[in-house]
Amino acid sequence: MPRSGLGHKNGIVLGNLVGLIDSDYQGPLMVSCWNRSQTEFTMQPMERMAQLVIVPVVQAKFRLVNDFVESSERGEGGFGSTGKH
Ligand SMILES: O=c1ccn([C@H]2C[C@H](O)[C@@H](COP(=O)(O)OP(=O)(O)OP(=O)(O)O)O2)c(=O)[nH]1
């Protein structure tokens, strides 16, 4: 996850917006940094650029169906289909 301070004050954000570490990943943790400001920025040793949030992983099982038994309020409405407010 990004840190709000560096992003807001210096334009230093994560290149991938949010980094996802796979639960079976065994390599070094990498942080993709992007300076979206016009000003050069030098990270200092021990300066914090990201924060790690550890969450439980749900191993979901999917069941394929041809039709839903009941229609839901959302139905097939996708991006922006519920309006702005
Ligand atoms: O900010 C990040 C994002 C990813 N990773 C590591 C852990 C993760 O498990 C692996 C692969 O990341 P991801 O699955 O997001 O990469 P991808 O672009 O989907 O490609 P691929 O899965 O083929 O590697 O890289 C990091 O260290 N930091």
From TrEMBL:
<dbReference type="InterPro" id="IPR036157">
    <property type="entry name" value="dUTPase-like_sf"/>
</dbReference>
<dbReference type="GO" id="GO:0000287">
    <property type="term" value="F:magnesium ion binding"/>
</dbReference>
<dbReference type="InterPro" id="IPR029054">
    <property type="entry name" value="dUTPase-like"/>
</dbReference>
<dbReference type="Pfam" id="PF00692">
    <property type="entry name" value="dUTPase"/>
</dbReference>
<keyword id="KW-0378">Hydrolase</keyword>
<dbReference type="GO" id="GO:0004170">
    <property type="term" value="F:dUTP diphosphatase activity"/>
</dbReference>
<protein>
    <recommendedName>
        <fullName>dUTP diphosphatase</fullName>
        <ecNumber>3.6.1.23</ecNumber>
    </recommendedName>
</protein>
<feature type="domain" description="dUTPase-like">
    <location>
        <begin position="1"/>
        <end position="83"/>
    </location>
</feature>
<comment type="similarity">
    <text>Belongs to the dUTPase family.</text>
</comment>
<dbReference type="GO" id="GO:0006226">
    <property type="term" value="P:dUMP biosynthetic process"/>
</dbReference>
<dbReference type="InterPro" id="IPR008181">
    <property type="entry name" value="dUTPase"/>
</dbReference>
<dbReference type="GO" id="GO:0046081">
    <property type="term" value="P:dUTP catabolic process"/>
</dbReference>
<keyword id="KW-0546">Nucleotide metabolism</keyword>
<dbReference type="InterPro" id="IPR033704">
    <property type="entry name" value="dUTPase_trimeric"/>
</dbReference>
